[in-house]
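Input:
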Amino acid sequence: MKERNGKLGWCKRAGLAVMLGSACMSIGLDIQRRFVSPGAIEATRRFVITDQTLADAGRAGPVGLQFINCDGATRQFAYFRAVYDLYPLPVVIANNDIVVFDAGQIPSGIVRSGDWWRRHEVKTILTLDQAGNSWEAESVPTTNPSGPG
Amino acid sequence: MWWALYLVFLQAAGYALVSRLARHRSRLEIAGLSACLGPGVFGLCLVFLSMLGLRPGRAEVLILGSLAVIAAAISLYKRKGNDAIEPPEVQRPSARLWTGACLVAIAYGAVAVAADVAIYPTMEWDAFGIWQLKGEVLAKSALAPRPAYFENLNLSYSHLRYPVLAPMMSAGVHALTGRLGDDGQKTPAMLLYLGLVAVVYSTIRRGSGHLAAITVTTMFADLPVFFRYAGSGTAEMALATFYGGSVACLLRWWKQRDWSNLVLTALFSACMAWTKNEGQALAGINAGIFVCLALSRRQWAQCAAFLAIVFILFSPWLIYIRNLPRTDEDYTGRLNLRELVSHVDRVPVIVRGTVRAMAKWIDTGPQRLTAPWGMFWFVLAVVAIAGWRRFQRGEVVLLWILLGLHLLVYVPPYMVTPWNLQGLMNTTIDRLLMHAAPVGAMLMGAMWGPAD
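Output:
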């Protein structure tokens, strides 16, 4: 590996070629990941749709989320994304004393009453039904339709 | 427009400091170190203002940025003609062609990171769940009085006690644009990426020449982990950059034993501690190595100064989080002898997982969770064996010790984690190795150089 007369030995030449080759391979993989892989394009589309739905729901004020037939990853994604997209608006899924660290703590299959949402000052409820692959937005009535009490 | 102005402020803040402290360095290295340190220093200023009750708004950022630009202009004027000029190497036409190819490959890396920063939405879960959410919180309210966010258990998943330097860098963009959400808040990562690439190149070039430096830097700059995480909005790029900067300055201090490099190393270490919990461990390693090296020559004053700078800069955060709820994995609480001994059986799994992750050279098969490394670690292993005579050089030994300690420091948290170990490693090990990558690249370059 010695350099003679300023020229590189074959070993060092091979090393340099391997390094540049490695960089070229990484670039190739990245181009494939960004522009060819259908999964990447679908993932970006999913983010754009979710962000738009949440932005529309947040126009009226605080948003409540409830989940029907949703797996953990979907619940977690929807809640984390909603909090990020809508901040500083609160995103309500449960009482404030519940520690939410992962999907297990995000309530599933619970449909709350209008009163419960009103107590949490929620203006719009978004219900995610994974089976139907749809978000359903519903405004919370300002007063209890069945009257006081 | 606002992003560009913010980047100018960050670079100016770094330059104002680096140009005064970094002596006998090339312009490229000074620009690189400025880009690495600027976002950290500017972010820390915003954090301290926020702790004093001053939320970073447009006026605050503009005033602070203008001061940074004035300080940088004064430094530039005073420094005129004092830059070290790297002696030009006589390059044959083939070497020039090689350099051109390397520059094209590095340019792809810069474009890819820029695209992630400016075009793609924030798609990494940790980015929008933790770091960029915190950025929005910091843009909306000062740290004093403490915002409701830090007590909201519904948001425990965002790790309420995680340090806030990286989010504060993003909050600066929110403050300037006046908008939250995906709107250029990841731009500081672009500066950090370019700065780190320049620092790695300059560090290797000094010892091993241009050809080795440009080639190793190309492989480093085009690592798939950078394509995945550098512009993603997580704190990984910031930590890798601060760590790379700290090691580059530590190496210079070790040779020159001067105060300037001491201050730079300490500033980078403090920024690391403010960036991630892992950064606190790495700052601890830097401090340990620094103390050992300083005491070996009885440099008591330098030793005390280094520890004082890091501690004084970081202690406000330790005080701030004292009463925050511990609702996350609480690694600090779990890192005790009893827990470690009871999970000693996990060590082989951790070692196997780490080696497997380093050896993953291409992204194939069902396990696509962690980013591959191309030939990066493989080349390091080969040059370590082929260049065994370089172990006589103190610089090489120091870098190996740093890399070894770096990899070791991640073992105890994996041992005590409450999560499924394999699942956790599958989603985190590439990011942890990304922090070590700058040292790996510098080591590769050092092993390439002359044996004595």
